[in-house]
């Protein structure tokens, strides 16, 4: 969000590279659908807790999901949701899924730089 629209392609293009089609991979459309599914599942499971975008990272056969959430639920519920999410997504996507979440007290604690 810190770049003007005409500079995004020059400075942030590496964020949108699809690495699933390197070396003759045949999964670019499946990867896009899986990413949409993951984001919708996370928004539904972690309802009104995310204060940032959901980041999906793929490394070899592991999917890492990152984001910033609010501290509005107890630690016990948060640990349950982490295990629940990792287990279901691992089963559905047939590969290990790891959540990498950070918490903030309030949405105003997340700093965005707007131009």
Automatic annotation (TrEMBL):
Domain of life the protein comes from: Eukaryota
Main location: mitochondrion
Location within or outside the cell: Mitochondrion
Presence of the UniProt keyword Nucleotide-binding in the record: no
Coiled-coil spans in chain: none
Record-linked InterPro entries: Ribosomal_uS3m
GO cellular component, one term: mitochondrion
Keyword terms: Mitochondrion, Ribonucleoprotein, Ribosomal protein, Transit peptide
Family per similarity comment: Belongs to the universal ribosomal protein uS3 family.
Annotated protein name in UniProt: 28S ribosomal protein S24, mitochondrial
Organism the protein comes from: Cryptolaemus montrouzieri
């Amino acid at each position: 969000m810190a770049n003007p629209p005409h500079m995004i392609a020059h400075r942030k293009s590496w964020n949108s590279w699809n690495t699933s089609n390197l070396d003759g991979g045949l999964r670019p459309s499946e990867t896009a659908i899986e990413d949409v599914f993951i984001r919708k599942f996370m928004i539904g499971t972690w309802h009104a807790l995310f204060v940032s975008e959901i980041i999906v990272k793929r490394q070899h056969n592991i999917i890492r999901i990152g984001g910033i959430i609010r501290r509005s639920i107890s630690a016990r519920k948060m640990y349950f949701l982490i295990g629940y999410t990792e287990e279901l997504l691992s089963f559905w996507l047939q590969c290990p899924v790891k959540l990498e979440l950070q918490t903030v007290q309030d949405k105003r604690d997340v700093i965005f730089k707007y131009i």
